[in-house]
Amino acid sequence: MDIRPLDETLSISPPLSPADLPSLAARGYRSVICNRPDGEAPRQPAAAEIAAAAEAAGLEFRHIPVVGDAIGEADVATFRVALADLPGPILGFCRPGARTTKLWALVGKDEQRAAALIATAKGADHDVTGLKPRLEGPI
Questions:
Q1: Under a CB-based contact definition with an 8 Å cutoff, are residues 36 and 94 in contact?
Q2: Which of 5, 70, 112, 128 is most buried (most C-beta within 10 Å)?
């Protein structure tokens, strides 16, 4: 499983299957956030399946489905609340991890400069430079 940290609380990964959840719990993760809409890909497990597996493994779960190029302020606010409410460490996933990284950067603009967020995302193999105007904009 390719897990990449964004900060001390949140890491990202490609898609998870229900079978992955016990391993995540064993690695010390306490929560999972799925940013994939149901039905995005053939044979993709539904969020309800991941949620049931997470609960069985003792993990908290949130489903915050977003479309990568259409992340709105409501999505960012929902993600912010999830990060604040869920016990960490948290693993967020979508397909390659880009949507989760974008949400993380948009939440982080309140406390970090755009350049730092872009550099951290790049270190996790995701390019969020397209968000620079939003990352530099008003909070």
A1: yes
A2: 128
In whole angstroms, give the CA distance from residue 66 to residue 40.
Answer: 11
SS3 state of residue 93: strand
What is the arrangement of strands in the sheet containing 90-93, beginning at the earlier edge strand? Answer: 4-5, 10-13, 90-93, 31-34, 60-63
Q: What is the pTM of this model?
A: 0.89
Q: Torsions phi, psi of 132, nearest 5?
A: -50, -45
Q: Which residues contact 122 (CB under 8 A, 6 or more apart)?
A: none
What distance in Å separates the CA atoms of residue 44 and residue 132, rounded to the nearest whole number?
Answer: 31
Phi, psi of 90 (to 5 degrees): -115, 140
Helix, strand, or coil (residue 110): coil
How far is 102 from 98, CA to CA, in rounded Å? 6
